[in-house]
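Late entry, evening session. Most of the bench is empty. Finally got around to the prediction I had been postponing all week. Sequence below, unchanged from the version circulated by S.P.
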Amino acid sequence: MDTATIAVGDREEAVRQFYRHSTIRAARITVPPRMTNRLAMGVAGRLTVGTHSGAVHRVDGPPTACVQRVRPSVAEDTLVMAVQTAGRFQLAQHGRTASLTPGDLTVIDPAAPFTMTYPGDFAQTTVRIPREQLGLPRRIVDLAAARPFSSATDPLADLVRQYFTLLADNAELRHGPHADEVIEAGMQLLRGLLAGRAGDEERAREPLQETLVQRVLAYTQSHLAERDLNATRIAAAHNVSVRYLYVLLAREDIVLGERIRTERLAAARRELASPAGRRRTIAAVAARWGFADATHFAKVFRRQYGQTPRAWRAAQAVARTASG
């Protein structure tokens, strides 16, 4: 946990809250000498998402860290999903052992006894989920815990990995206007993945269909700056036809072209007022957000916000001066 960005007077409470809500209580911990852990956490609705990494400063003996829970705990009411992004990780629980390499993921049940082994430097994306929010029977969770999930064995695994990695990295997705829908879409995907491993095929298929609109919107949000973002590319990324994509969005009263343009304008507007954006030309900001023609950008910007990009940036400068 890095407290460098937290006010000195608030650090004690921040550490207390972190350990209360963002860690797994373990009965036994063994780590090699000089092993550095780094945790970066963020909130997404009722989820806690972030990254966990460790660097081993090698000394004599094997550079292996081990964390164990030796007794069940009724205090734990959450589950943890770990996505391996670098190094290796091994989880033993419920009589099974999952060995993860980059790209794999698994589910940890903090309430049950476990052994977590880190044989060297590693990095993970972690998602801490209230058990009731996941909404799956304990039988399914128990069958899925401590099993490795990968795209080679589970069709949904790669999608779940990408989705939650993006959620951990993108604060705007976690707190933007569509945050609730984005988070629920991720939860549906995870439910489908775990139910599929438990053999509930019907339950595993439903999330792909039910969350398609949310996944499309999340995809467009994360690729706004790319000029080739269009219906053909979006449909191909989600394994549907362009026609079906338009039909599906129309049911939700979403016009794809208008939605992309509106979100690009909002992103450009924010950048124009940012410290970095103030050093760029308006044409450069427009191009960065997919507008090849600066004149067209100014026209649609004025139509959307009632003033030109230049006038908007000047007004923000005046507001900063007044507040300073």
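Two things to note before I forget:
The mean pLDDT is 81.
Strands lie at 28-30, 35-44, 47-56, 65-69, 78-87, 89-93, 96-100, 105-108, 114-118, 122-130.
Will write this up properly tomorrow.
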